[in-house]
Amino acid sequence: MSADRAWFGQPRGLTVLFLTNMWEQFSYYGMRALLVYYMTKQLAMAQGSASLVYGTYTACAYFTPIFGGVIADRLLGKRRAIILGGSIMAAGHFMMTFEPLFYPALATIAIGNGLFLPSLPSQIDDLYEPGDPRVGWAYNVYYVGVNIGGFLAPLICGTLGELYGWHWGFGAAGVGMVAGLCIYLWGQRYLPEQARQPAIEATAATPVRLPRATLLLLLAIGLSVMVFRGAYEQVGNTVALWADTGVDRGWRGRQIPMTWFQALNPLLVMVMTPPLLVAWRRRSERGAAERPARRMATGAAIVAAAYLLVAALAASGGQAHWLWLALFFVVLTVGELHILPTGLGLFARLAPKGLGATTVAAWYLATFAGSLVAGFVGTGWSRMGHGGFFLVLAGLATVAAVLLWCLDPAEQHVQRLAEMD
């Protein structure tokens, strides 16, 4: 068993998926860190219009995986879907370096993301034998990879964009996507063999369906996460705008680049994940493990507290010290780690054999809907006081927390049914 272990005592294939996703997320968050600023400063868009474009783009990036997951399961297989999707995404990022191609480039990235995104994490469970206890922590380890890329992206792409020109930042995002593809191709020998062929074709003799109770549970969790995303996705939108105008970014006679603050969240994910995993493992050993729905509800409530902090700062008038913004990201990240990787893991574990990529894609459908909500909510930034606006975000996260808490009994029931099967 030890020969099959890599970082955090997990299979080497998880490291390959981890690094591939790290660079894909570098490209996505590198472009996203610049997007609102590019539209408002370079393209001279009004804030409301830029918010709608931002929300629509992020929504489409998480809607296309529904089709991409079906295509991967039924036609291409996960390996070919990742290679094709990653290549299309890289092309889209390089297209962003040409101003006239702005909208076609966004559409290209969204299409490529549809093939790429669900096919990568849906390979995680295939790395483990049934009953392997390591799978419970695998999605948190994988989530660190998401955030290493997200941490590096604003520092590299954001700095290049702000200091040397927006198109340099977009080009760096394209280079990151190419790096992720190269790592994935290099690490094929460590990845599941079943990823090479369509899963539906491989199980054609056995009808594949999602049990009704599981379907209803995933739908309800997805709706709750949609509400949560309406608040959470403001980090790259209205929170970024507040960091530009409502925060004193001065430090030792210089201004901290506004895009650097977007690196705080992924940096904190990297720092906080190991101790959280240790704490959760110890609770599990004592028989006091928090069930997924309750853990997600706790996370949404913590994010609500983060927005209450910002609401108080924005309502006080004047500029807040940048350390308060840093504290906001600390609280937000603790909540995020409770809800987002937990939800992704729950969707993947409840997926029937042969529908792995499709079920994981349904998780991203909730992100799609939440991004649309976030884009619509973001238009209120210019129409109401900033303190009141952040109170609305705190309210959205609180509603999501209550919904997820109420779903705990249903989640327990579905888990028992899955264990019986």
What does it look like?
With 421 residues, the chain is mostly helical. It has one domain (2-420): MFS general substrate transporter like domains (Growth Hormone, Chain: A). The protein is built from 15 helices and four strands. A hairpin with a 2-residue loop joins β2 and β3 (254-255). α3 (78-95) runs antiparallel to α6 and α11 (292-315) packs antiparallel against α12 (322-349). It starts with 11 loop residues before the first helix and ends with a helix. 55% of the residues are buried. The model has no long low-confidence stretch (mean pLDDT 84).
Please describe the structure with a list of short key phrases separated by commas or semicolons.
74% helix, Growth Hormone, Chain: A, single chain, 421 residues, mainly alpha
Write the layout of secondary structure elements.
Layout (H helix, E strand, L loop, with lengths): L11 H31 L4 H30 L1 H18 L6 H18 L15 H30 L1 H21 L12 H4 L9 H21 L5 H8 L1 E2 L1 E2 L2 E2 L8 H22 L6 H24 L4 E2 H28 L6 H23 L7 H21 L1 H13 L1
Parallel strand pairs: 1-4
Antiparallel strand pairs: 2-3
Helix pairs in contact: 1-2, 1-5, 1-6, 2-3, 2-4, 2-13, 3-4, 3-6, 5-6, 5-10, 5-12, 8-13, 8-14, 10-12, 11-12, 11-14, 12-13
Protein name: POT family proton-dependent oligopeptide transporter
InterPro entries: Dipep/tripep_permease, MFS_dom, MFS_trans_sf, MFS_Transporters, POT_fam, PTR2_symporter_CS
Membrane topology: Multi-pass membrane protein
